[in-house]
Amino acid sequence: MADLVEPCVNMLNAIGGGIDGSILDRLALGPAEFNASLYGMAGSVHTSAVKPVSATIASIVFTLELARAATRADGDRELGVKIIGGVLLKCALVLLFASNAALILQGIDAVVSQIVSAASGVLAAAPGSETQLLGDQMRSAIEDAGLIGQSGLMVLVLIPFIASQIAGVVLLAVVYMRFMQIYMLTCFASLPIVFMASEHTRMMGVGYLKRYGQVSFQAITLTVGVILYRTFVGEALRLDGYVDGGDLWQYIIANFGTLLLGAIMLGCLVIVSSATAKAVFGE
To answer: Which residues cross the membrane (predicted)?
Structure first.
C-alpha cells in the first residue's frame, strides 16, 4: 500500500513556504507586459471613444475659463492681458497633459515596476530564505510514522493547508483585479485631466491621478507585505523548527495554531497592503 509521505511533506512545505514566487513576478510586470491584448484594447477605447469626448469637454472648459478671466479684468487692460495670458498658458499645459495622458501613466507604471523589481531582490537575501522547508525537515519522522500516523498528520494539517491555499488564491485575485482596475482607468486617461483647467473641477483630475497612483502603488505595498510575510513565516515556523528524532505528533499539535496563523496573516496581508497604499496617498 502506498504511503502518504509525499502528500504530507508537500502540504507542510506549502504552509511553511509562504507565497508562490510567481505572484511577485506578476506584480513586477507593467500593464502592457501583464496582458498586451487588454492593454491594447484599453488604449483603443481611449483613442476612439474617450478622446473625442475629452476634446469637446476641453473646448467648453477652456472657453468658460477665458470668459471668467475676461470678467476679472474689469476694464484694466494691463491686468486683463496678464490674466488672459495666464489662462491661455494654463489651458495649453492642461491640453498638453491630456494629450499625453497615456504616456504619463506609462511613466508611473515603469517607476512602480522598477521599485517592485528592486524590492523583490530583498526576498532572496531575507532571513531563512535558504533554510530547508518544514516538510523536508520532518520527512524522516513522517516516514517512520507509518500509514496510520501519516493519515492522522494529514488530518491535522489539512485545515491550515486549505486556509493557506484560499488566502493565496485571494491574494492572486487581488493582483488580477489590480490590473483590471488599471486597464479601466487607462480607458479614461484624458477625460479627468481636461477638468484640471478649471478651479471648480480641478479635483476631478487630481482625484483620478491619486487613484491611479494608489492602485499602481499597491503593487509595492503587496511586494513589501509578501517579503515581511515570508520573513515572519520563516521565523515562526523554522526558528523553533522540528528537531530530527523529536516527537512528530507533539510538534504538530504544539504548532497547530502557528501553522493556522500563517494562513490568516496571508489573508490579512491583502487588507493591510490596500490600507497602506491609501495612507501613502493621504486617504
So the answer is: 79-98, 147-176, 212-232, 252-272
